[in-house]
Amino acid sequence: MPYKLYNSDAFDWLESQEANILHAIVTDPPYGLQEYTSKELSKMRKGKGGVWRIPPSFDGAKRRPQPRFTILNNDELNDIKNWFEKFGNATFRVLRPGAHVIIASNSLLFPYVAIGMKDSGFEFRGSVARLVRTLRGGDRPKNGHKEFNMVSSAPRSCWEPWLIFRKPFKGTLVENLRKWETGGLQRISEETPFLDVLQSQRTPLNERRISDHPSLKPQSLMRYFAKAVLPLDRGTILDPFMGGGSTIAAAEYFGFESIGIEIDKIFFDIAKNGIPLLAKLDVRINGFQDDTTFSDKGTTITQEKLEF
Ligand SMILES: C[S@@+](CC[C@H](N)C(=O)[O-])C[C@H]1O[C@@H](n2cnc3c(N)ncnc32)[C@H](O)[C@@H]1O
Questions:
Q1: Where are the domains of the chain?
Q2: Which CATH class is domain 3-305?
Q3: Contact 244 CB / ligand 1 (< 6 Å)
Q4: Closest by Cα among 217, 270, 283, 214 to 247
């Protein structure tokens, strides 16, 4: 089995590792605050109150809970920045020079993530805009829906930023690729470089049925990242906040080595059971044409085929 899973605190695990061993991190972190504490998880599992909210339903479909980030005050936003600095410090040592770190964020919080990671020593290398309707924001003013029917309290978010960082290296990229196998992002094809906009979808029902985690990311998206972060198709990807195991399943799909850490035993078991099934799914990158496939030779897409 090319992947290893640990039911552990990511920070403890990272501290116990040797330096310069990992090629990449792809992760969707807990944002360091409240949403994955046992108190908030228990409220979410009971379906009552706390930081988790159920987004409004437009079509009668039951929506999954989402963390309510708009309630964060300035101190809590600063805590996010500090938490990412701590995360950056913990991961910097175990990554090879030139290793990429791709972190899921959202349109409200990404500046705090970027500054925290930069302050821990990583280079900020841009972001991928995942075009997806998250159903966050865009509501009319509370208790004033009729009076202010043409007003939104905030934009409805239709994209999700995935931030890209790199551990700095000495010398040229070519030298680093030879020595550490890292530093660049794998191209989509000889003609097409890695692209920073991706039409996406919410996680399909069949994937959520396999791995019932409230933040499960789609395989189409995670395979896009897993392939990109290993420029030479070799190395080990870490997801320190594995959740339902979507990163590990994507790595497994390509036969890449990976390591997943999850602190919550219920989620850990969900991931352990779900990863082999998610990895077997036949998926395409939603938004690309039907001939988009992942194969041993890489993704077969070209820029002209992007649908916006
Ligand atoms: C946003 S979710 C990840 C979802 C995942 N990307 C997926 O597709 O299923 C973050 C996960 O990190 C876990 N977590 C929170 N703090 C942790 C820690 N210190 N160490 C390891 N896991 C942690 C939470 O229990 C949660 O499952």
A1: 3-305
A2: alpha beta
A3: yes
A4: 217
